Amino acid sequence: MTDKPSYAELERRIVALEMELEKRNERDRGIIQTLTEDFEQLADRSQDGIYQYDIESRTFPFFNKAFLELFSLEIQGVRVLSPKSVLVHIHPDDLSMVRSAQKASLEPGSSGGEIEYRFLHPDGSIRWMHDRWTVLRNASGQAMTIEGVIRDNTLRKQAEQEIMQAMRNALIGSYLVQKGKFLYVNREFVRISAYSENELIGTDPLRIVRDDFREFVREHAVRMLKGLENTPYEFCVVDRKGETKWVMESVTPIMYRGNRAVLGYFMDITKNKRAEEDRKEKEKLQAVLELAGAVGHELNNPLQVVLTCSQKLGAKPAEDPLRQQLLNLLQKNIQKIVEITRKFQGITQYATKEYVRGKRIIDIHAASRMSH
After folding, report:
1. pLDDT for 149-180, tens place per residue?
2. Full domain range(s) for residue 237
3. In 3-state terms, what secondary structure has residue 358?
4. Number of structural domains the chain divides into
5. For residue 210, what are the CA distances in angstroms to 44, 161, 218, 276?
6. ∠ CA(160), CA(164), CA(165), 5° rounding?
7. Under 8 Å CB-to-CB from 224, ≥6 apart: which residues?
8. Which of 37, 48, 55, 104 has the highest local Cβ count within 10 Å?
9. What span, in angstroms and rounded, lies between the C-alpha atoms of 370 and 239?
10. Which residue among 82, 115, 150 closes a domain?
11. Contact at 8 Å (CB) between 322 and 308?
């Protein structure tokens, strides 16, 4: 049998074990301390304000330098950070909105919140801050701590305002699309589409595109957004009155309110298209007139010879009735050719008619009638 250790031996082992545990705890505390110091140094190097707020004590157990500089108050040469000093720096017109967002985040089931508000900066300027936070809860679900990050979004906000200002003042139609829906349309876009702003906001941009152009628009817009093409594309839209209009469009990707968006420019080219169609119509007419002149000129001389010969042949009645019948038929059709030639020379308008297999040909008779 193995002898049981004596009381003194047990006591010695317990002391040794306690010393080993103390060494481990000391080592762990050193690691934790090092990690804490590293985290604090990293947090202090951040340009964003980082904070931890204890709900019960209404204090900030942790905050970095950026948060302290932004939200503290200097009282008798000492920087003081408190819930009151934080609220003092929030624009008075945004206080109610901020408080409502914070209150909502503390409701059961909520894990946090975010909000953007105007900030009264210590240097006297007004800046835009974006505050995003997480609510930590105990086992029973009670909110205990708030941990958050505050970022200065002033430059982004100014860029967004400049974009909106440029869109409002644009002489052509412009719009903003985010998550596949209209987010903003300017007055010229409203005029072109004949829809009101309220009727457009939140709807699919393709709704006003004529059905036969939708796939074309989708394809070219995607290619332009990917940088694969930079030439504006033309297509037809149907306005609120049911009228078809030709437009020319270009799109570009941007960031708006922290998310990807599409900025589009939209120009009504209906008048230009109609002018182009008129030009093509005039070119067709010119071609018809030139063709008619050429045909008339080329046919006139041989036609006169044929006409003269037929008249001489018909001067005396033919003995053979069939021969006389054929001669009369020849003279009748020669006269028709003369009339058609005259119509060629009198064409001043362009007209066509249906031919075989879906083709169209020049309607000489209609074009000649239109000229009189």
Report:
1. 998 888 888 877 777 777 777 778 889 999 99
2. 157-268
3. helix
4. 4
5. 56, 32, 12, 21
6. 115
7. 230, 233, 250, 251, 252
8. 48
9. 34
10. 150
11. no
